[in-house]
Amino acid sequence: MSRCETLADSPGLPKSSEGDPVFAEPWQAQAFAMTVRLHEQGVFSWAEWTQALSREVHRPGRAADGADYFDCWVAALSGLISERGVASEAEQSALSDRWARAAEATPHGKPILLENAG
Question: What is the model's pTM?
Fold first, then answer.
């Protein structure tokens, strides 16, 4: 089984009738792709990923219906990135804030560019 197939078999990952991962928003697919790539690069093992995701999915206050699954996914990925020294929580927060400013400054229908953050 390939690494991608293993990641695609993540419990709770929404799937099409054919069994392929489905994403409600482009950012969900991007988070999935980043996770696959970081795993392939050896930033974290499969076991480390499943433990991190499981911790997030089972945190108190999470949606019982799984509606926040990809929020859990991003939180798990963010934690692993920080733990592994790829980017600190402060660096991730600063980048997130920069993206938010860029999104606010971008006209509707245009691509969001970080240089629009000001």
Answer: 0.76
Roughly what angle, to the nearest 10 degrees, separates helices 46-57 and 69-83?
130
Q: Which residues contact 26 (CB under 8 A, 6 or more apart)?
A: none
Q: What is the number of residues in the chain?
A: 118
Given a cut of 90, whether residue 9 has pLDDT beyond it is no
Q: What percentage of the chain carries pLDDT values higher than 70?
A: 88
Q: For the chain, give me the number of helices (H) and strands (E)?
A: 5, 0
Tokens of 52: 């991190």
CA distance linking residue 46 with residue 52, whole number of Å? 10
